[in-house]
Amino acid sequence: MCELFAMSASEATDVNHSLALLQPRGGAVGPHADGWGVAFYEGRAARIFKEPVPAAESRCLGFITDYDFKSETVIAHIRKANPERFGRTTANTHPFEREWNGRSWVFAHNGKLPGLMASHGQAPRRFQPLGDTDSELAFCLMLDAIAAAGAPAAGPLAATETIARISPLVARLAGLGEFNFFLSDGASLIVHAHTRLHQLSRACTSCIGQLRVILLATLPLTDEPWVPLQPGSLHAFVRGHEIALQTPVFAPAAPHTARPITPAFASSTPGDRP
Description:
This protein is an alpha+beta fold and 274 residues long. The chain has 5 helices and 13 strands.
């Protein structure tokens, strides 16, 4: 399938170390060799880089891991095309982006939704796919559900309201297959842990102020105490804090059981960069 990575932080910070650990999984020590992408939010706009090439071979991603891009919200993805006929194209590479309510909405998915392309029960309305994947179609359907209830009078949509608007659709889509995803408008990070996602919390008390960072990944990147998220749970994170949790949105037929994981990479300490 694919692997996901995201960060929510109390202040803009870089994710160089995490991206450097994720990069080899995209075709060197992992099979996810059909593309990579990363989105860094700057306020309401997302700066997105992506290529339909193995992350492990990408000079562009290597440059990004050294460049110190800073953000409060980051979403990254390394892709394994499934089915293979939906192969290496930019249109099929995550993360996907659309505009609504004057903000960039970004989405990345791990899993497969068999049958969605043929019989999803409704066609997307305002938001249309550019590529061939069930992932992008699911994103467009979720944005339709978000937009259908109208824009807030001022500012971004509250994270709790976003969860309320998408929950019924998330439950239905999760029933089709596997639907782990990250969704953000730059103000909040919405996370659905359908089968397998892990969370790590860090705090830097020696920083100016107190930097709080939450990292999320399909599989742990370090030997720190990553915590498996409950299967079927829907979370919202804002600036390094979890502010909403709904569970279960959908109960998987075969609940994921956390298993010991031996990291393939060097450890980092809470004082390190994310």
